[in-house]
Design brief:
Elements: E1 2-8, H1 11-19, E2 24-32, H2 41-45, E3 51-58, H3 65-74, E4 83-84, E5 87-88, E6 94-98, H4 104-118, E7 125-128, E8 132-134, H5 142-145
Parallel strand pairs: 6-7
Antiparallel strand pairs: 1-3, 1-6, 2-3, 2-8, 4-5
Helix pairs in contact: 3-4
Length: 164
Amino acid sequence: MKEICLAGGCFWGMQRFIDQFDGVMKTETGYANGPDSAPSYQDVCHDSGHAETVRICYDENVISLKTLLDRYFLVIDPLSVNRQGHDTGIQYRTGVYYTDEADLPVIRARFAEEEKKLGQPLAVECLPLENFFTAEEYHQKYLVKNPGGYCHIPESFMHLEEKA
């Protein structure tokens, strides 16, 4: 089992989007790469410095890191700073936070591919995971529990590859 953390705006939509893919074994919403103290959602909304992030555990024999990153780039604006959709603030920044240095060449290659396509540097962080604090329970699988909840990712993207 491998792990990667993706920040792509509001974590509700990113979690629901990623959950649909075969090989994704578990996802968890949380707050990453901020100060070393566990924040509350209110702290994060008041500029604690953490990013709303989804921790993804996946089976690399079923879905590759490159494929996960390909899908990630489908649903973010990689040029936007601290904003995705209508959500603004440092907690909505984009980032790929890795836990295994061996993943870095794949991440860097995928970033280079995206930069070449767009013709400019990305505003997406590429950093080691410094810390991750699990979000409150009501944030876990939020859009499954609240199907009409707000999401910056179009509904059509939530059905690209639904698991059987």
